[in-house]
Amino acid sequence: MIGVVGAGAFGTALAIALSKTGKDIVLWARSDRQAHEMAELRCNRVYLPDAPFPDGLRVTSDLNEVTAATTLLLAVPLQHLRGVVDLLSPGDTPLVACCKGIELASGKGPTGIIADTRRDQTAAVLTGPSFAADIAIGRPTALTLACADDTASASLQSTLTTPSLRLYRTTDTIGAELGGALKNVMAIACGAVMGAGLGDSARAATLTRGFAEMQRIGSVFGARPETLSGLSGLGDLVLTCTSELSRNYRFGLSLGRREAFDPKTTVEGAATAKAMLQIARDANLDVPITKTVTALIDGDTQIPEAIAELMQRPLKEE
Ligand SMILES: NC(=O)C1=CN([C@@H]2O[C@H](COP(=O)(O)OP(=O)(O)OC[C@H]3O[C@@H](n4cnc5c(N)ncnc54)[C@H](O)[C@@H]3O)[C@@H](O)[C@H]2O)C=CC1
Ligand SMILES: O=C(CO)COP(=O)(O)O
Q1: Does 79 lie in the same domain as 11?
Q2: What is the pLDDT of residue 67?
Q3: Could you read off the pLDDT of 229-238 as tens digits, one per residue?
Q4: Counted domains in the chain
Q5: Where is the active site (predicted)?
Q6: 71 phi and psi, to 5 degrees?
Q7: Dmax over Cα atoms in the chain, in whole Å?
C-alpha cells in the first residue's frame, strides 16, 4: 500500500495516477470534513474538480490508516513538511517528499528536513515539471526521483512509475532539491517581468540569467550540473516561467501589475527566495534575481527601479 499524505492539488493528482494502475492507495487529508467530502463526491472538489477518483482510491483523515504503507508520499507545502514528518510514527517506510522549496527556519530542503528527525529512514524527493492537473487526467509527464541510496531509489522508481508518469532517478538530492526550489523564485521574477509589460525578450533574459544563478548556487553546494540541466532544474524552470498555470508565475504577474494576490494560494518561491537570500549572504554568493524577488515581495523596490539596478550591474563575461 502507498500512502499519500496531503490532499492538496499535487497529493491528490499523484494518488489518482497511482491508483489508476490498480495499486492500493490511501490519500490522507488533515481535515475530517475534506476527507468525507472527497469520499462522497469521489473527487477533490477544491483542487481538482475535473479529475474523478478511480474506484480503488481510499480517502481518510486518520493517520493510523497510512502507517501500514510500504511507501509514503508527503505532498504538503515545504514550510509544513517538518510538522507533517513529526506527526508520523517512526519506522522504516521510505518517505518521499513531494514538495519544492527551502525551509526558512533552517535553510534545509526536503531530505535535510526529514533527516533531522529520521536519520535512519530512507528519504527521497519527487520533483520536476508537472502540473497536478496534467498528472490527474493522465497526460504524459516525466519527473525526477532523487534519493542518496541508489538501491532504494531504483525500487521507488519502479514503484512510482506509471504508464503516464515516467520517473528518472538520481542520487543527487542536492541538485534536484535546489532546482525545484529555485525555479519557483525565477518563475516569480518572470511573472513580474511579464506583469509589468516588459515583454518576451526580457522574460527570456530573466529565465536564462535565472538559470545561471541556479548553476552558480548549485556549484557552491555540490549539485551536479546534469541534474540542474535535467527535469528537476531546467525542465521545471521552463515550465514554470512560461505558463499561467503556475501559481508562482501568477504571483509574479500580480507583483508586476501591482494587483492583490490570494494569500491562501501556495506560492513556494516566496519563502524560498528569503531562505536562499540568507544562505547566499552567509556564503558570500551573488544572487541578484533572488535578491530582487525578495525586495519586490517585501515592497522594498518596484519593477522600474529593480530593472534599472539589474541592467546597470557591472558588465561581465557570460
Ligand atoms: N500543484 C502542482 O501542480 C504541483 C505542486 N508541487 C509541489 O507540491 C507541494 C504541495 O503543493 P500543492 O499540493 O500544489 O499545494 P496545495 O495548496 O494544492 O495543497 C496543500 C495541501 O497541504 C495541506 N497542508 C497545508 N498545511 C498543512 C499542515 N500544516 N499539515 C498538513 N497538511 C497541510 C493542505 O491542507 C492542502 O491539502 C508544493 O511543494 C508544490 O511545490 C509539485 C509539482 C506540481
Ligand atoms: O511545480 C510546479 C510545476 O512543476 C507547479 O508550479 P506552481 O507551484 O508554481 O503552481
Answers
A1: yes
A2: 84
A3: 999 999 999 9
A4: 2
A5: 183
A6: -145, 140
A7: 61
